[in-house]
């Protein structure tokens, strides 16, 4: 174990904890970030949120509830009426469209014509 590295990391941790505490208590000036950094952080948070939502929905598509799968198979075979509710793939598609609209057409989430 490298004691110098450990002590350096521990010191950095305590310095950050002290700074955070002083900022919250109003004893120190809050660290201000430039607009570009703030927008980058917001974009990263939005990307993280949408990605987590889509991964969760993708898991529901890949491992569907057996009763929902049976219901969907019956509706496909009978075709007498279409169900009024959406299936998992419909939710995933709607979520992808919403994410694309939220990010715009210039990103990987967007749709380019």
Strand content: under 5%
Fraction of residues in helices? over 70%
Helix/strand-derived category reads mainly alpha
- The strand count comes to 0
**First-last Cα distance:** 56 Å
Main sheet specs: none
The H/E string reads HHHH
The low-confidence parts are none
- Rg is 24 Å
Give average pLDDT, whole number. Answer: 80
Structure description:
By secondary structure, this protein is mainly α. It has helices spanning 3-25, 35-62, 66-78, 88-103. Helix 2 packs antiparallel against helix 4 (88-103). The chain is elongated and about 70 Å long. The N and C termini lie far apart (56 Å).
Keywords:
113 residues, mainly alpha, 4 helices, 71% helix, elongated
Q: How is this structure best summarized?
A:
The protein has 113 residues and is an all-alpha fold. The protein contains 4 helices and no strands.
Topology:
Blueprint: H1 3-25, H2 35-62, H3 66-78, H4 88-103
Helix pairs in contact: 2-4
């Amino acid at each position: 174990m490298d004691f110098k590295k450990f002590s350096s990391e521990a010191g950095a941790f305590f310095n950050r904890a002290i700074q955070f505490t002083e900022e919250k208590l109003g004893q120190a000036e809050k660290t201000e970030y430039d607009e570009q950094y703030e927008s980058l952080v917001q974009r990263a948070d939005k990307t993280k949120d949408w990605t987590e939502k889509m991964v969760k929905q993708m898991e529901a598509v890949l491992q569907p509830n057996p009763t929902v799968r049976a219901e969907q198979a019956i509706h496909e075979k009978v075709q007498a009426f279409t169900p009024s509710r959406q299936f998992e793939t419909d939710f995933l598609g709607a979520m992808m469209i919403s994410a694309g609209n939220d990010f715009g057409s210039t990103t990987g989430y967007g749709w380019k014509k």
